[in-house]
Amino acid sequence: MDKLQAMAIFVRVVEARSFSKAAETLSMPRSSVTTTIKNLERHLGTVLLRRSTRTLSLTDAGERYHVSCRAILADIAQAESGLAADATSPRGRVRVDMPGVLGRAIVLPALREFEQRFPEIELVLGLSDRPADLIYDAIDCVIRTGELTDSTLTARRLGQLNWITCASPRYLKEHGEPETVTALSAHRAINYLSNSTGRPLDWRFTVECETLTMTMQSRFAVNETEAYLQCALEGLGLVQLSELVASPYLKSGRLKEVLAHARCSPVPISIVYPNGRNVATAVKVFVDWIVEIFPQDGAG
After folding, report:
1. Pairing of strands 218-222, 189-192
2. Would the pTM of this model clear 0.85, i.e. be above it?
3. Reduced to 3 states, what is the DSSP secondary structure of residue 224?
4. Cα–Cα distance measured from residue 287 to residue 272, given in angstroms and rounded to the nearest whole number
5. Domains of the chain listed by start with CATH number
6. What is the pairing mode between strands 163-167 and 239-242?
7. How many Å apart are CA 265 and CA 205, to the nearest integer?
8. H and E: helices and strands count for the chain
9. DSSP states of 128-171 as a string?
10. Cα–Cα distance between 178 and 167 in angstroms, integer?
11. Average pLDDT score over the chain
12. pLDDT at residue 26, as a whole number
């Protein structure tokens, strides 16, 4: 016997004061309603309703059971309506990790609009060049650049990053501008240290339609994008920066792109979150919003 269904039928019979009327409102045969109440009474071991040809009334046990049933059904209705409200107005906390470059350039400027659309969602944003572990760091989703290797996660493509080689006019005035990739051996580079390995990242170029990877020698190396940019602005050497970071300084003339003909292939950007049906509605909403705000033709 379905106890919740039996409770609901019992309450409807009491409210309608009739088996026939209750059956009509429930779109059920009268015989089914009658059988359900009989089975319920048998299960409880007590009579709930006094029946006569004209009247229907509650026993003392029926009175108490009716009050309890109404409270239980009301709690269930409230719980279900709360979930429905979450679907239309998602709520909860979403922990996100992303590269600082993407966060500052794309996500942070759009947060006011997110707050207006989803006032019940609390965002905890981590902006770091250090790759985060979803499980260990208790993070709901991450934005990552580069090719993904973890097949246990769900990933949605956001766009791509274009990397450019550039330097300050001061550096180029002192050391000249490299015309070819092979000419880089005569130049100073600033290296960027990987936060996962602690080693300098390789520099990548496209030469005759093929990707060329180089290990650059340098006197300076840093592990944070803002510091990397500052070294370039100070004229300490050549750098490879995301166009997102470099673009304002290229426009103002504080940086100049070199070897534009040898730009490496763009790097994909994805938002990644755990597989499964138990992903919170708030996380799904945030992922959809991130996909929406990222430039359709790439992130830059």
Report:
1. parallel
2. no
3. coil
4. 9
5. 3-88 (1.10.10.10), 92-161+269-293 (3.40.190.10), 163-262 (3.40.190.10)
6. antiparallel
7. 8
8. 10, 14
9. -SSPPPTTTTT-SEEEEES----TTEEEEEEEEE-EEEEE-HHH
10. 11
11. 87
12. 85
Q: CA-to-CA distance for 115 and 137, rounded, in angstroms? A: 25
Residue 91's identity, in one-letter code, is R
pLDDT digit string, tens, across residues 36-79: 989 989 998 999 898 876 778 888 998 899 888 888 888 887 77
Pull the structure tokens for residue 140: 């709901």
Q: Which two tokens stand for residue 80?
A: 């279900």
Has residue 86 got a pLDDT over 70? no
**Measured between alpha carbons, how far is residue 161 from residues 76, 98, 113, 216 in Å?**
49, 14, 24, 21
Q: What is the pLDDT of residue 271?
A: 92
Which of the two residues, 35 and 83, has the higher pLDDT score?
Answer: 35
Asked whether 202 and 212 are in contact (CB, 8 A), the reply is no
For 147, counting Cβ atoms within 10 Å of its Cβ (0-12 exposed, 13-18 middle, 19+ buried), the class is exposed
Token duo for residue 108: 């942070």
Q: What is the pLDDT of residues 235-253, one digit of tens each?
A: 999 999 999 899 999 999 9
233: exposed, middle or buried (Cβ count in 10 Å: 0-12, 13-18, 19+): middle
Q: What is the residue whose two structure tokens read 């590269």? A: 99
Give the chain's length. 300
Angle between helices 19-26 and 30-44 (to 10 degrees): 110
**What are the tokens at 68?**
């309890």
Q: Which residue has the tokens 């944070």?
A: 224
pLDDT of residue 232: 95
Average pLDDT in the 153-161 region? 88
Residue type, 112: R
Angle between helices 243-252 and 225-233 (to 10 degrees): 30
* Residue 130 pLDDT: 77
pLDDT over threshold 90, residue 196: no
